[in-house]
Every structure is written in structure tokens, then in C-alpha cells.
């Protein structure tokens, strides 16, 4: 069975390797797949976004292990989420927020039999979450590991808005290439605009159209494009829009993107 791993542990320490070792000692048949480990530390919203962009492509029975856990050792609960035929293991700190927009079940991990015998106050990824994920991947029923719970923690997800001037949205993520990924989806845009009389505005920058490919603008120039998730992205041909606009993951909150009707 597949177990994916998504953490902010980086690749220069032994944290991820220790978690994998724990999983494989419990279930040697587990197939371990890394989603990402080089997130900026403690960035729950980035982890939630990456999980949301990836989990749907895995087969039924996959267990997703997510450890971005700035509250480790505190009062936050260790949880399991089931959605459809997939399972998610990690801290109850909002990292699973995007899973809660459809039917799901939440369980608090309560049975210490499925944890390591000694549980560190600073490494629940190794001592709680990894063994629980391993046992789930080996076929142990969720109900034997945890008890049903209500009201898992979630953060507020910004929603795009249709206004008199057009469509206004937020930057949700900055990817490896410096693309600024927004929450404006193509369906909303097509409902709001019946003509090509619009421009895309971010800060002081004006982009006259939404391009079909990166090479439709000169090298280094900004462009708007529909990304692989069918959401609007602000990019730069063969360059970084984030660097061009002096934006990174720490500064995206409050940055607005507007698809504005011409003349407004």
C-alpha cells in the first residue's frame, strides 16, 4: 500500500529517514512516496495547498502522512481523516483544511498500542504519525486506532469574488518557479466575462490578456495564464514573477489580483 510523506523537515537531517524506517519496520511492503519536504518551516497553508493539489491523483487505499507541526507536544490533537477511500494522518492544526469541503470523517488518535513505545515531546512525526500511517497501510481499521471527533481545526480559505469591476482574488501559493498561483478559477472567469475586454491587475502591473502559453510574451515579461489546476497564475517567461514583483510565501497575505473589466 502507498504511503505519501509531506513535511517541512528538509533533506539535510535524519527526520524523514527516521519516519520511513519506522513505517517499513511495521509494514515492509509499504511503498513510500515523497510529496515534498522543503517547505518553509511551519507554513501550514503551503502544506495544505500542496496536499490538496496532489492527493486526488493517488489510488484508493493510499495513506497520506503530513507533518508540519509547529505545535508538537502541545494540546493540538493527533488525527486521522478519511475522505473517499483515502486516509490522512497528521496534526489537527488546519493542515487538512481543504479536505473539509466534502464528506469526511475525523478521528482523534487515542490508542497508544499503535504508537511507538516511547513518544518524544518534539517528534510526533516519528513516534505517533509514522507508526499510525504504517498500521493503516497494513490494513488496521481506523476505528481501532482512534475515536470519532467533531470540529477539526481549519483556517479560513480566501474565496474569489465577482465585483462590479470584475473578479478579485488572492495569491494562494508561490511555486518553485516563482509562479503566483491564485484562487481565481477559469469557470468563475468565464461566467463573469462574456468578452475579451479585460486586463489582469496585480499591484501596479497591468497584464492585457490571459496567455495560452509562456512564450507568447518576451523573455522576462509578466503574463497571466491558466495553470494545471485551472486557476489563474501570474508568471514570467523564463523568469520568476515572484522575484519580479518582490513577493514570496511570507508576503502573499493581502496581495490581491483583479481581472478588471476594460474601462473600470
TrEMBL record:
Keywords: S-adenosyl-L-methionine
Keyword S-adenosyl-L-methionine included in the entry's annotation: yes
Domain of life: Bacteria
Domain S-adenosyl-l-methionine hydroxide adenosyltransferase N-terminal span(s) in chain numbering: 3-146
Coiled coil: none
Pfam families in UniProt: SAM_HAT_C, SAM_HAT_N
InterPro entries on file: SAM_HAT_C (IPR046470), SAM_HAT_N (IPR046469), SAM_OH_AdoTrfase (IPR002747), SAM_OH_AdoTrfase_C_sf (IPR023227), SAM_OH_AdoTrfase_N_sf (IPR023228)
Domain S-adenosyl-l-methionine hydroxide adenosyltransferase C-terminal: start-end pairs: 169-249
Family, per entry: Belongs to the SAM hydrolase / SAM-dependent halogenase family.
The protein, known as: Adenosyl-chloride synthase
Species, as recorded: candidate division TA06 bacterium DG_26
Amino acid at each position: 500500500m502507498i504511503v505519501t510523506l509531506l513535511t517541512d523537515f528538509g533533506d539535510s537531517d535524519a527526520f524523514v529517514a527516521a519516519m520511513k524506517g519506522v513505517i517499513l519496520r511495521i509494514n515492509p511492503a509499504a511503498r513510500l512516496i515523497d510529496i515534498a519536504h522543503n517547505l518553509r518551516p511551519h507554513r501550514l497553508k503551503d502544506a495544505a495547498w500542496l496536499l490538496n493539489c496532489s492527493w486526488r491523483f493517488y489510488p484508493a487505499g493510499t495513506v497520506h502522512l503530513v507533518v508540519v507541526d509547529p505545535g508538537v507536544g502541545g494540546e493540538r490533537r493527533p488525527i486521522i481523516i478519511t475522505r473517499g477511500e483515502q486516509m490522512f494522518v497528521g496534526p489537527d492544526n488546519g493542515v487538512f483544511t481543504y479536505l473539509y469541503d466534502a464528506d469526511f470523517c475525523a478521528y482523534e488518535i487515542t490508542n497508544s498500542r499503535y504508537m511507538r513505545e516511547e513518544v518524544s515531546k518534539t517528534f510526533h512525526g516519528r513516534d505517533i504519525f509514522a507508526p499510525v500511517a504504517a498500521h493503516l497501510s497494513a490494513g488496521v481499521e481506523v476505528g481501532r486506532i482512534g475515536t470519532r471527533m467533531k470540529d477539526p481545526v481549519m483556517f479560513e480559505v480566501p474565496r474569489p469574488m465577482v465585483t462590479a469591476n470584475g473578479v478579485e482574488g488572492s495569491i494562494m501559493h508561490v511555486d518553485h518557479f516563482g509562479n503566483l498561483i491564485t484562487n481565481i478559477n477559469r469557470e468563475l472567469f468565464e461566467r463573469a466575462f462574456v468578452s475579451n475586454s479585460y486586463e489582469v491587475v496585480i499591484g501596479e502591473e497591468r497584464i492585457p490578456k490571459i496567455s495560452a502559453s509562456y512564450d507568447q510574451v518576451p523573455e522576462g515579461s509578466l503574463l497571466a495564464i491558466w495553470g494545471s489546476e485551472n486557476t489563474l497564475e501570474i508568471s514570467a517567461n523564463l523568469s520568476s514573477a515572484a522575484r519580479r514583483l518582490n513577493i514570496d510565501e511570507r508576503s502573499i497575505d493581502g496581495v490581491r489580483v483583479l481581472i478588471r473589466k476594460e474601462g473600470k
